[in-house]
Amino acid sequence: MSNHDHIVNHDADAHEGGMDKKRIWSVFFILLALTALEFLIALGFVHHWGILQKGMFVNVVYIILTLAKAYYIVAFFMHLKFEKSGFIICCSTVFLFIIYFIVLLLVEGEFLRDAMTHQAIFPHQ
Amino acid sequence: MSTTVSHLDKVKDGPWSGGKSPWNLEYGKIMMWFFLVSDAFTFSAFLVYYGAQKFAQPSWIDADKVFQSIPGIAESGQPLVFVGIMTFILIMSSVTMVLAVDAGHRNKKDEVVKWMLWTVLGGLCFLGCQAIEWSHLHHQGFWFGRNPATGLTEQSAIVEALQPYFTKEISYTAALQFANLFFTITGFHGLHVTIGVTLNIIVLSMTLNNTFERRGTYLMVEKVGLYWHFVDLVWVFVFTFFYLI
Prior knowledge:
The complex is a heterodimer. Chain A has two domains: 1-83; 85-125. Chain A contains five helices and no strands. Chain A has helices spanning 10-13, 21-48, 56-77, 85-92, 96-118. Chain B has helices at residues 27-56, 63-66, 81-105, 109-140, 155-162, 172-208, 211-215, 219-244. Chain B is 68% helix and 0% strand. Chain B has a single domain (27-244), classed as Four Helix Bundle (Hemerythrin (Met), subunit A) (Up-down Bundle), CATH 1.20.120.
């Protein structure tokens, strides 16, 4: 377990390389800090002090922070970072489809919003 | 006679040349990963649809005005605090799960039991919080196919029922879609948490029965751990898209 020399021996014990107690807690504190940052923005900057407005900018910040948290959970807690690169590629590239899906539905949503605000839903009534 | 081996006859020893596991992972663990990837697709579809709806509607409900109570402490005016506690509980139980997996690597049965107990406890706390959240929202009038204005006919009554939840102009459709999607997505996530807690309890009792000790490996703790972290991962996204944005 005490594999501190950063040269993780994949063939011998790929499952044990990389995560010891210290590392687990440091990942926990990173997750906690990112969540706290989200709360600081939402409750502090937006809600309490009114420095930032709800809108595109804070939403992008939230999404980046969320993806960062997701990275830490998947890479360290789920141990994906320490698996073989073939497996990492296999499990992660499929999410390109999700990105495509997001783009598709945003385009669709924009069309619908435009259609619903500017066109009568029941034109003949 | 030449002793040089021709290029074709050379024994291949790459990871994909057969004879060994190319990913160096146990079969069940790979299958758990593939299941989680497919499950991530399901959750992505739900959340992307939620985003598309929100984007398509001219007006949307203000989450800060729907979720603003801390049960037993404050009835209103405190957005995000209760869900923050829920998020903390789930992240915490994720950590205790990693610690259980870590103890499993070192074949320490007592530690595995201890950390699995904490994980189960965290999962149950989270489910309790979610039950409170659901019943609170139900009291406000939201449910599958229902929002606070459902059943009202007078225009002024509808406006009065929906006004507290909107900052921009009110929208009956938006409130309804919000209610449907909130209960569907958090319900589907809650179902995953319930299954996760059940699996954790099963693994805990298997540990207590010395099943893994006899098997010589605590790999099952790791597999259930993957599932449990996934539940936490989904919550991170649900939290962002329902409560923050």
